[in-house]
Amino acid sequence: MALTLADSYQPRSSLAIFAANSCCTLPAPISVFTLSNIQSNLSAIDAQISLERKASKEHTVGWICALPKGQTAATVMLDQVHANLISKPPKDPDTYTLGSMGQHNIVMTYLLKRQIDPSQATAVAEQIVFTFPLIKFTLLVEKGSGAMVRLLLDHGADSQLADERGHERLFTAINSGNVEAAAALLEIDSVRNPSKSAQQSMLTLAIKKGHEAMSNFLLDHGAHLDHEDEDGQVSLCVAAEQGILGAVRLLLENSAYVDTTDVECGRSPLWHAAGRGPCSPYRRDA
Predict the structure, then answer these.
(1) Under a CB-based contact definition with an 8 Å cutoff, are residues 63 and 106 in contact?
(2) Is 190 or 69 the better-scoring residue by pLDDT?
């Protein structure tokens, strides 16, 4: 079957392909383009390539996680997530997340195997530098991200820069249960005294999320037991209402007032405990 052009080629004229054999049916419609459309699409592709080249040159920090879920957890520490590359070097098998923390542009990836292999870590580190040639330093983070957070803070990252929801970095670390990151942030004077609303909700947030280690950490660093959250509840009432037995025990061991009451409704921890079903050891019920 021979194919012919419906019209002779002319600049900016529509191009369409038809089958010369009238018995032939095409499996699907063929798009019709004008030369200007083609030029427009090529311009868009050129613009994307330019952005990718710019991105590969502007990202200067490499962050390698042990597992994919570690990369997912680390992503919440970013102030902004950038668009991913649509093209990579042909032999680059790694998956990247691009973003920024303060003034630092970061490339995240993870090891492909489910355990840390020194030879594989070296290969991933070499590959990330090849794909992003201006990377100044790369860290391998097995658990948490305390070392990375400290490094960025030492290089001037703004610890109080909030995301689009108004959450500062300390809130993000507590929300994700990242004790190492929270410890690094609390080493900074400006973070030791967060906003009033943050002070009132940090311990309760850790309890609601079921982060036992974070709850212990916050209590060891002076978290107030009687601060209300945004719903007017204190931490012991929240733990009793959620049925988190370990949190209730932890708070009582830290001298929480057993007959404290909610600000809004006056309900005590005993009221909450008596009105709910079985408790979970230290995990918020589904």
Answers:
(1) yes
(2) 69
Q: Find the farthest-apart pair of alpha carbons in the chain and give their distance in angstroms, rounded.
A: 89
Contact call for residues 143 and 66 (beta carbons, < 8 A): yes
- Which H/E stretch holds residue 99? strand 97-101
Task: Give yes or no: residues 21 and 116 share one domain.
Answer: no
Neighbours of 207 (CB within 10 A): 27
Query: Residues 181, 145: contact at Cβ < 8 Å?
Result: yes
Please give the model's pTM, rounded to 2 decimal places: 0.47
Indicate whether 130 and 30 sit together in one domain.
Answer: no
212 against 49, higher pLDDT: 212
Residues 136 and 82 grouped into a single domain = yes
Strand partners, 105: 100
The identity of residue 212, as a single letter, is: E
Lowest mean pLDDT among 26-30, 132-136, 178-182, 261-265: 26-30
Domain of residue 8 covers 3-50
Within 10 angstroms of residue 280's Cβ, the number of other Cβ atoms is 16
Q: Domain tally for the chain?
A: 3
Half-sphere exposure for 240 (CA within 13 Å, toward CB): 23
Give, in order, the Cα–Cα distances in Å from 201 to each of 21, 74, 131, 148: 74, 22, 41, 25
Do 41 and 109 lie in one domain? The reply is no
- What lies within 8 Å, CB to CB, of 104 at 6+ separation is 60, 61, 152, 155, 157
pLDDT tens digits along 72-87:
777 877 888 888 765 7
Q: Specify the pairing of strand 80-82 against strand 97-101.
A: antiparallel
CATH of the domain at 262: 1.25.40.20
* 3-class DSSP string for 168-219: CHHHHHHHHCCHHHHHHHHCCHHHHCCCHHHHHHHHHHHHHCCCHHHHHHHH
Asked whether residue 230 falls in the same domain as residue 139, the answer is no
pLDDT band of 142, cuts 50, 70, 90:
low
